[in-house]
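I hope you will forgive my troubling you with a question about protein structure. You will find the record immediately after this paragraph.
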Amino acid sequence: MSEKSGFAGKVAFVTGGGSGIGRAAALAFAREGASVVAADVSEPGGRETVRLIEEQGGRAIAVRCDVTKGEDVKAALAKGIEAFGRLDFAFNNAGIEPKKPAPTADYDEDEWERIIDVNLRGVFLCMKHEIPLILRQGGGAIVNTSSGAGVIGIKGSPAYTAAKHGVIGLTRAAALDYAAQNLRVNAVCPGYIATPMMDRFTGGTAGGRAKVVAEEPIGRMGTPEEIAATVLWLCSPLAGFVVGHALVADGGQTIQ
């Protein structure tokens, strides 16, 4: 993006900013001139993201944040305001993968609660506390991480599928609530992306990765940087007429 991309002097709050897609997005925001609050439940991960941003000449702070706890979210945002004085963009990306597949009738109730709590309730809590801060600046943009599982069904994964569908519904409701106040809310729906989460999902084996790649018409997994670029586009003036959209970036996986 150019110097007119709209990020210089602005502030971005990124959850799950300590690794994977969140780290890539934090770095991308910083490269475009935004100051970044890298929020993550992993403090070492957040600190490493900040180190990488500062290494490239950017400004960032790391804050510990459990998105399932409203007070954690409020405290993390308050630290961002204390450091940088404002909030313009939020990328609500923190999420977890299922431990193991199971059909709906056999699905563990605790596992259901765990997935819904982080992947859906966490997005709600973040938006609940981000929105007033962004409106204080006259508007901005929020992007929530859904998934290809937000637009199709995934066998053996009822909680993850429900949560990611829920993120899209939540995104659309919030988009309608605040579009007239110059706050655009959208979602990104990644396919299989080469991240630490995907390593856990595949077992970190060549066979596991090959099975995943075989489901991608493009013939490879995506990169965190490709999703980060999508997020920045959604936050930029280039996407100024995009409201309540779920942008699928999955190498063609969900159109087969």
